[in-house]
Amino acid sequence: METVTHDGRETAYRLAGGTRSGEVADVSGVDNADVLYVHGSGGTHRVWGAQYGPGGPAHPAVAIDLSGHGDSDDVETEHGRETLAAYARDVVSVAEATGADVLVGNSLGGAVCLHLAIETEFDPTALVLAGTGAKLAVVEALRTWLAEDFERAVEFLHGPDRFFHDADPETVARSKSTMAEAGQAVTRRDFLTCHRFDVRDRLSAVGVPTLALVGEHDSLTPPAYHEYLAEHTGGEYAEIADAAHLAMVERPAAFSDRVGAFLDRALVDD
Questions:
Q1: Residue 27 φ/ψ region, left for φ over 0, alpha for ψ in the -120 to 50 degree band, beta for the rest
Q2: Residue 210 CA to chain centroid, in angstroms?
Q3: Helices (H), 99-222
Q4: Full-prediction pTM beyond 0.70?
Q5: Of 3, 5, 195, 267, which has the fewest CB atoms closer than 10 Å, so is most exposed?
Q6: Residue 21 pLDDT class (50, 70, 90 cuts)
Q7: pLDDT tens string 115-132
């Protein structure tokens, strides 16, 4: 893992090289990445392992641990805009350190990417918004469990057609372990930040090629959320069959193919 220091804290990220033929490239001495992947609530950079690995859509690639997740220092912020702004500074700092200018965000990570594109001076070349939305309301029961019964919250999120549609037991167990390691406080902060996120009236300000990509069975951020994103950003819409919220984990090849095809079109004149 690499780190960048900013705002009094260290943010960790994984820089990886490779080719779609399956060869892994040596990234020693590499300064620039093509794509920066941003995980969702209670996650880490590892959720993007299939994308920054040799089968991914663009290389070199970088995947971040947001503050308080994985190997990154935490922040003391209130949930909502304060936390969103802190996570956005994490992403900008890693983007500046690596030269990445395409952002791919899942769930909370998608909210961070939208915040950056709409409300900051950071100017991405393209966005992929996966398993996310312009508004990310969290049901009351989950908010209650995140405060009072974290284990039940984790189980709920791994129920049918939430994080996964039909993932193997090892994948589900690994996802549960990652959220448990993030811990109750950080994961609750993440979901409450999502709950307060709403940029529906500002999507026209995105102004860059955008792909709204969703697992067809995603009940947390369903296809309608992504149709709305595509319509109001002037972007593209695509579904991943046989997948739910974490489509990049559950159907990594299909996810990478969709992202790769989009980038081929979006960056043709870059």
A1: alpha
A2: 14
A3: 108-119, 140-148, 150-157, 169-182, 184-195
A4: yes
A5: 5
A6: very low
A7: 999 999 999 999 999 999
Name the residue with tokens 């697992």: 215
CATH top-level class of 2-266? alpha beta
The interaxial angle of helices 184-195 and 150-157, nearest 10 deg, is 60
Position 105, amino acid = G
Q: Write the pLDDT tens digit of every residue in 223-262.
A: 999 999 999 999 999 999 999 999 999 999 999 999 999 9
Question: E-strand spans in 59-173?
Answer: 61-64, 102-106, 126-130
Structural contact between residues 207 and 234, judged by C-beta atoms closer than 8 angstroms:
no
What distances in angstroms separate CA 80 from CA 137, 141, 262, one per listed residue? 12, 19, 31
CA distances from 192 to 83, 150, 186 (A): 10, 14, 10
* pLDDT at site 54: 87
Dihedral through CA 71, CA 212, CA 59, CA 18, nearest 10? 80
Tell which residue, 118, 91, 93, 253, has the closest CA to residue 198.
118
Q: 270 pLDDT exceeds 70?
A: no
Tell me the DSSP string of 19-37: -TTSPPPP-TT----SEEE
Place of tokens 């448990």: 180
Q: Which two tokens stand for residue 142?
A: 């989950």
